[in-house]
Structure formats: C-alpha cells, structure tokens
Amino acid sequence: MAVRAGWLVGPTETGSEVTPIDDVVGHTPGDDCACLPYVEFVPGDSSAGWMVVHHAWDGRE
Predict the structure, then answer these.
(1) Enclosing domain of residue 57
(2) CA 36, CA 32: separation in Å to the nearest integer?
C-alpha cells in the first residue's frame, strides 16, 4: 500500500486541529471522529489552546 503524505493544520474556535490530507477514509472535525483523535492542551501566552490531532487510516504516522 502506498503511503500518502501531508497534514493540514487549521484553526478552531478553541485552538487548532491536525488532519491527514487525502486519507483513505474521511475525518469528522472535532474530537468525536472515528479515528479516535487525541486532544492536548498547548500552553502559551496569547496562543494557548486545545489541539485535536487525528490519526491517519493509511498508516502515515
């Protein structure tokens, strides 16, 4: 199986979200996606927020 490359990092209301680009299965925004993304708080002064990181179905991690 060919491994696809690339991740999309986008802003959300509470931080950011990292999603695989052109994955073999689509992803639902937020932490209730079927890929069981993990959520992590990223501290910072004005840039603090929650980061949702999705897992790739195609094994690129």
Answers:
(1) 20-61
(2) 7
Q: b or e along 21-36 (b: 16 or more beta carbons within 10 Å of the residue's beta carbon)?
A: eebeeebeeeeebebe
Position 12 scores a pLDDT of 94
Beta strands in 1-61 (DSSP E): 7-11, 15-20, 38-42, 49-53
SS3 assignment, position 43: coil
Assigned domain for 6 exists = no
Q: Can you give the pTM of this predicted structure?
A: 0.85
First to last CA, the chain: 14
Q: How confident is the model at residue 1 (pLDDT cuts 50, 70, 90)?
A: very low
Number of domains forming the structure of the chain: 1
Is there a domain that residue 7 lies in? no
